[in-house]
Amino acid sequence: MKSFAKKNAHQMGFSFTALGILLAIAQPATAATFSVGGYSWDVANSVTTGKIIQGQEQTSAYGASFGPNDPSVNNRTIGRLIESNTAPNNSYSFTLGKDNQTESIIELGWGKGMSLANQDGNDVVIYESGGSGEPEAYAVAVKKVGSSGFTNYLYQFSSGYWDSYSFATAIDFSNFGLNKGEQIEAIRIKNLISSDMVQGQDGQGFLGGQYQPKVGPNGLEPDYSIGKFDADITFVAGLHAPRAVPEPTSGLVLLVFGVAGANLMAKGKKSR
């Protein structure tokens, strides 16, 4: 059962002004801040794009009671993003898979040219609407800026919950081998199926191992039972602000400004 529940002086000044403009553009807008399931986030830091990579379109009303009942939150739920906001107002979650043999994958991001950096601690939180006291299993892969593909999928236990049906899982990008400051441009989420095994003996970890995945009551204590395979992904938020990925041309412009400034300073010294 489920609940419905991101002149020389003038010339040199221009370069600093241009730099200021570029930095200003990279600054995210602010929005309302909420605390749900033990994690606080700004709506502006939540994902803004979603698409289906594998599987059929399956939005649902599950998760309707998730967190704050706020239009800014409702418009960024995963069901609404994937259906490009054409879904009914009560379609909040996206259901991955329909049985323990059907694999579904969705891809989410913060918009073109935007990314979320790996910082200290957890970087993103994912909310899923499961059964009463029963989170549903899913795994996450990430794509680093500049990479040609995604990492292996990682399954983690839920780490908090909003009520007995809505579960939070916080992800630290360092778990994927990223260094601090490296940026993620997209994430993929897939449901687990009966053939998926994990590398950790504790029942979590990267897929492709030899151990049975575990799901615990309220997502807190592992056991050997996986009761559901159709995870309903409701909301995904960065735990810090996304930022713009510098375009190559932007770096070239700054380099040109820097060289021009250095030449002007050198000419000034020679004229003394």
What are its keywords?
six-stranded antiparallel β-sheet, alpha+beta, single chain, 272 residues, 4 helices, disordered N terminus, 19% helix
Give a brief description.
By secondary structure, the chain is of the alpha+beta class. Helices cover 19% and strands 26% of the residues. The strands form 4 sheets. Strands 3, 6, 7, 9, 13 and 16 form a 6-stranded antiparallel beta sheet that branches. It has a 6-stranded antiparallel beta sheet with strand order 4-5-15-8-12-11. It has a two-stranded antiparallel ribbon with strand order 1-2.
Low-confidence spans: 1-30, 250-257
Q: How large a portion of the residues is in β-strands, by DSSP E? A: 25-35%
Cα radius of gyration in angstroms: 22 Å
Report the principal-axis shape. globular
Arithmetic mean of pLDDT? 79
Quaternary structure = single chain
Terminal residue distance: 82 Å
- Please work out how many helical segments DSSP would assign: 4
What characterizes the major β-sheet?
6 strands, antiparallel
| Structural class determined from secondary elements | alpha+beta
Provide the succession of SSEs.
HEEEEHHEEEEEEEEEEEEH
Give a count of the beta strands, DSSP E runs of length 2 or more. 16
Helix content: 10-25%
